[in-house]
Amino acid sequence: MEIRELKKGELLAQKNNPVKEWYIIQEGTIIQKNDFVENELGVNAIIGILEQDFFICDYIAKTDCKLILFVCRGVDDLKHFFKQQAKMRTLFLQTAISQRYQQFRIYDRLFRLANQFSVYLDKAFEQYQSIVIHNRFETTKVPDISTFQPLNVTHELQKWEIDSLASLMKNCMADYMKIYTTDDNLTVGAIMETSAQMHRAMQGIMQMIEFFVVNRDLLISDKNRDLYHGMLSLFAFLRKEKRDTAEIEKLIVDTIKFTQSTTVYSKSLLEACAKEYNTIKTSEVAEEEDTEEGASSDFEIILDYSGFINEQKEEYIKHFAEYTKCYTKIQKNKDANTLRKQVNNEFYEIYKKCFLRAVNDRSIPATVEMFLNFGYVDGSFLEEDKINGLFSITTHMDQVSSEHVFTIFNWLKAVYRGDREPSRNEFDLDFRQYLVEEYKSGNIKKEDIDKIVVMPEERVAFEIDNMFKTVNRLTYGNISSFNACLNDTDLFNDPTAMLVTVNKLYKEINQIRSIDYSAFYRPVYSNDMPDALKNEALMKEVLPDIILMPNAGSRGMMWQETASIKNDTPARFMLPMFATCDIGDTLIELTARFRWEMCRKIQGARWNDIREHSLTADYYDYLQFYKKNHDLSNDTKDQIKSALQKAKNTFREVFVRDYFNWIKYESKGGFRLNKVVRPIIFTYCPFSKEIRGKLEESPMFSDAIHKFNVNNAKQLKRLSAIYDKYTRDGGVITPELKENLDYYDL
C-alpha cells in the first residue's frame, strides 16, 4: 500500500483516464463530480470501485486529503490485498455497500426528477398553447416540444433492487456482514457484485444527466428561445393588449418554482430569468420590440455581424440566393458547379471576418454561433425543424467540447490565443516553415517572420486557409460536390441524432484503448529527469485532439501525429460534426494511421530499415518480400496482392485494414490475419492484459503472448530495481515515473 496526499482543489482522477488503482480515503473529503451531479465521499470511502477500465467521474479534493492507494484491476488483486490487509475486509465490504446505497439514492432522485420534468414540460406547454390559441398570439420563439422524448434508461435499476438495499441497510446489516466476511471468496464476491451494480447505477445516472443536458433548455435557458421566454412574450403581449394575464402569470410563477426545485439549472440563470419577469411586470407597457415582418434573414444577420456593408454585402446576398435555387443540382449543372466554388470561397471570407469579431465577443447571437460551429448560413438551405435542432445544440455546447474535443470555432479560438499551434498545411509545413518559404519567394522580409508567427490574426488566417478549407472538404467525403453551407441534402436526419458528441467519441476511443492499451502511448525523453533516470525513455499516454468540422460528412482524417516536433504533444484527428459514417470504425482507422505515422516520426530516416526493428520496418519487409515468403500459401499471397492493389500499393493503408481486423475481430478470437502478419502486429500493438489472458491458450497467440509476457516482466524487473535505488537515494516517484512503471503491467 502507498499513501497519497492531496491539497484542497487538487484533481485525484479525471473522467476517461484509465483506472490503474483504487483509493481509500483516510482523511478529508473528495467530491465525485459528473456534470451538475456532485457527491461527497468521506473517510473510508473507496474511489475506483464503481468504475471498470476508465473513470466515469471526476474526483476532486474538497479538503486536504490523505488516501491509501493500492493496485486493483480485478478479483486477483482484491484477494491479494485482503491477504496482506486482513483487517480491512470488514471495513471494505461495509463501505462498499454504504457507497452503493448512496449511489442508488442519487439514481432514484434523478429518475424521479426526470419523470417530474417530463410531466411538467408537457403540462406547461399544453397550458401555454391553450392561452396562445385563446388569444390568437403568434410567435416563432418557442421550441417544438412535440419532438421531446421522455427519459429512456437502458442501464436501469429495478425498484426491488433499491428497496431491498434500503431494507438491508436498515434492518439486517450486522447479519449480512457476519455471513459475508467469513472468508475471502464471499467477501470478494460481494464486493465485485456491489461494484457491478454501482457501475450500472452510474451509467444510468450518466444517461439521466445527458437527458437533462439535452432537454433542460426547452423549458428555460439563457438563449431566449425556450418555453419560459415564450410565456414572457405572451405575458408582454397580453399586458399591451390590456387582457387578462392571471393565467399566464400563474404559469410563469409555477415554472420559476419548479425550476428552482430542481438541481439542473444554475442559480444565476434562474435569478436572471425571474428578474426578466419582474421587469416586464413592473415596467410601463411598451410597443412590441420586434415583429416577424421585415425581419432580417439569418444570412443578413451573419453578414451584418461580420461587418460587410453596401455593395459587397449585396453581392454576397445575391450569390447565396442564386445558390439556394441550384445547390442540389451541382453534379449535373456546370453553372451550378461554378457558383458552388464561388460561394464556398465567399463562405470562408465571411467566416474569417465573423470569427475575428466573435473571438472577443462575450455575447454572440445564436445565428452567428450556428454559423461558426456548424456552417449554418440560412433557412433557405435547411428546414425549420433542423434549424431548431441546431439551435438546441447551441444551448448545450458542452456536448461537443472538452479538453481534447473542439468545434472548429473553439479550435480557432485556441489557435488565436496561443493555446494550440496552427496545424501543418497539406504540404506538411508548419506555420514557421510556411513563412520561411514565403520569405524565400520574396513575399515577406526575413525580419518579419518572428513577428508574424505570434500575431493572432495571422495564425488564424493560416489555419483557415491551410487546414480548415482543406479538411472541411476532405471530411465531407465527396470533394467534387462539397458544400461549405450546411444544407438539407447533407443533413438528411435530425441534427441531434447525427451529432458527434464527446460521449460518443470517448466511448469509442476507450473501447480501442481497452483492446490496444498502448495505442496512444509514446516514449518521451525529458531534460528534467534526475541523473539516475536521464537515459530512460518514459512511456506516456497522450490522447489526440479531435476537431469537429462544420459539415455532415462521411470521412475522418488523421491530420498530424503530434502537434509539434515534440513527441508528447497530441495528435490531431479531424471528424465531421454530423457523421454519416460509423464513428467507431472511423476512429479505429484513424488510430491505425496514427500508429503508423508516429512510428515513422520516432524512427526518422530509418523507418523502413529492417536492421532496426519497428512496426513500419517489419511491415515494410513483410509486404516488400511477401512473394518469396515460404510461410505464406499461394492463396494468402493472392490476398496480399489484392490488398495492395486496393490500397494503391500504399503499405500504410494495408496496415490500416489489418489493424481494423485486429481490433474488431482478432481481439475476440475471430481470426482474419495470416500467420506472418499476426505476430508483427501483436509485437507493436499488443492486446490488454485481460484479452491476453483469454487468448493465451490459443495456438494462434500462445507463443507471441508468452514472449511478450517474458519481455515485459524483464523490463518491469529492471525498472523496479532502478526505481528502488533511486528512492533509497532520496528520490521521489513522480506521477510520470509511476505511469511509466504501470505501463509494463497493463
Can you put this structure into words, describing what you see?
The chain has about 750 residues and is α+β, with helices and mostly antiparallel strands. About 55% of the residues lie in helices and about 10% in strands. The chain contains 27 helices and 14 strands. The chain has a 4-stranded antiparallel beta sheet. The chain has a 4-stranded antiparallel beta sheet with strand order 2-7-4-5, with no helix packed on it. Strands 9-12-14-13 form a 4-stranded mixed beta sheet. Helix 14 runs antiparallel to helix 17 (about 455-475). The two termini are about 20 Å apart. The relative contact order is 0.06.
Q: Could you list some keywords that capture this structure?
A:
four-stranded antiparallel β-sheet; 54% helix; 14 strands; globular; 746 residues; alpha+beta; 27 helices
Let me know the largest β-sheet.
4 strands, antiparallel
* Helix/sheet category: alpha+beta
The pLDDT mean sits at 91
- What is the topology, as strand order, of the major beta sheet? 1-8-3-6
Helix content: 40-55%
Distance between the termini: 19 Å
| Strands, total number | 14
β-sheet strand percentage: 5-15%
Oligomer state equals: single chain
Q: State Rg.
A: 30 Å
Q: So what's the overall shape? A: globular
**Helical segment count:** 27
Spans where pLDDT lies below 50 across 5 or more residues: 286-294
